[in-house]
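Attaching the record inline, Q. Sequence:
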Amino acid sequence: MTTRTRTRSPVFGWLASPPPSAAVEVAHGRVTAVSVAQQADTLVLSGHATVGLGAGVVDPVLNASNVHDASILTAAIRSALDKLSPRPKRVGLVLPDTIAKVSLVKFEKVPARVQDLDQLIHWQVRKAAPFRVEDAQIAWVPAHGFADGAREFLVTTARRDVIESYENACTAAGAYPGIVDIASFNVINLVMAEGEAAERDWLLVHATADYATLAVVRNGNLIFFRNRTTADEGDLADLVHQTAMYHEDRLGGGGFSRIVLAGATARGADQAERLRRQVEERTGTRPDSIGFGTAVTLRDRISAAPELVDTTAPAIGLLLRERLAGRGASERVA
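Structure, as predicted:
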């Protein structure tokens, strides 16, 4: 399993290859496919399609089977891809955060050899993974560095058979998944691609229909990541407040430069607005809605509706991950 390490983005990939021009996201109740085209110095959203999944088709969990009806999932992916023109043969594949365990592992002294570092990371994962590390796919990238030479690494672990079940459905639908990633990492990509450099730490609140992820980014590096299923907006707003307190007390934060709310329209417009108000009440900061910014435009150059941005953001973020990468990329084997 080869992963590509980047210096400006917190993303990882189970497989690395030249960036595709289309991506598929499999979520709890839907499949979304998007395609982009390069025009001058910008990317244009050239196609998008969403196909619903019935109850019980997929159950995105960490340590159990996820795909319960492969034929229906394959048909949904095929249907979504058929709506893109030209129909892609290679795609990026975005999966729910809940299928992976995300950890920030800190080493006071980092081994000089990549092979030694890789073994050390695998040893750390072995202690905490809820399944055999021999059955896992593990990806890691350098994260936040400290003045004393210590460094954190962003480590993502998932069961290999779970990943393969989604990959197989994608392949059966006629598209090879060359990059695999999880949703919130790629929402972060899209926010970073908006081109608004934050002078201080910023918080992502990715609130999907069936789970929520909170992530704090500092200088392009992930320094906090928490995922949980959420019953209602009040619970999530409380979790945001707890995260803000933890950020201040334990992470040396002095408040967030911005809070970005993504995915919430999947809960309905009224619930999304209620969540926005509750987060503002608990933090004193009005959350921004995620947008395409200058990174991606629509063909007709009209403003994208919030529902469209929320639905397509993870897949578009994956397509932006290679374009976010700075110079000095290196290959790592994990």
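The chain has two domains: 2-99+159-188+294-333, 196-289. Helices lie at 70-82, 114-128, 160-172, 183-193, 233-250, 269-283, 306-324.

More tomorrow.
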